[in-house]
Amino acid sequence: MAYAGYLTWGAFRLDGAVARRPKMKKKRPPFGIPREIILLARQDAWPYTFIADDSGGGCGKVPMPPDAAVEDVQAAVFTSLADLTRTFHGVDIEVAWSSLTPDSWVGRIRYVAVTEPAQTDEVSEGN
């Protein structure tokens, strides 16, 4: 059987070389595990920045009206960030918000221990 110009037998090519699978590089998550969120109140938007453990981070704007309640905006920022952290890193996080100035808040993030689901000793009926 011809394969890319070489005759092959099993995993070995007849010229003595071993056929190998191409190495797959693991993709790094786009950001590290967040440790702090900074939320600002502006006249037209709710910008935020988060700082991650790897000295990286990100920023964005919350898609909510400028007159929205601060607690709702904080919940929106945290929910999306917590979902991404769980997806990319497998870590659950919590946030504790405090006010820096009348129009800015900081959220300190801490990791939450993930509990394993309890194993049940169920016996199937009929056996």
What does this 3D model show about the protein?
This protein is α+β, with helices and mostly antiparallel strands. It has a domain at 34-112. The protein is 16% helix and 37% strand. The protein has one helix at residues 70-89, and strands at 2-3, 6-9, 12-13, 34-40, 46-52, 57-62, 92-101, 104-112. The strands form 2 sheets. It has a 5-stranded antiparallel sheet with strand order 6-5-4-8-7, with helices on one face. Strand 2 (6-9) and strand 3 form a beta hairpin. The longest helix has 20 residues, at 70-89. The chain is elongated, with a radius of gyration of 25 Å.
Q: Specify the overall morphology.
A: elongated
**Main beta sheet:** 5 strands, antiparallel
- N- to C-terminal distance: 50 Å
- Contiguous helical run count: 1
Total beta strands: 8
Radius of gyration: 25 Å
Proportion in β-strands:
35-45%
Helix content: 10-25%
**Which H/E pattern describes the elements?**
EEEEEEHEE
Mean pLDDT: 81
Low-confidence stretches: 115-122
Q: Could you give the order of strands across the largest sheet? A: 6-5-4-8-7
The helix-and-strand class reads: alpha+beta
Write the layout of secondary structure elements.
Elements (H helix, E strand, L loop, with lengths): L1 E2 L2 E4 L2 E2 L20 E7 L5 E7 L4 E6 L7 H20 L2 E10 L2 E9 L15
Antiparallel strand pairs: 1-2, 2-3, 4-5, 4-8, 5-6, 7-8
What is the compact description of this entry?
This protein has 127 residues and is of the alpha+beta class. The protein is built from one helix and eight strands, in the order E-E-E-E-E-E-H-E-E.
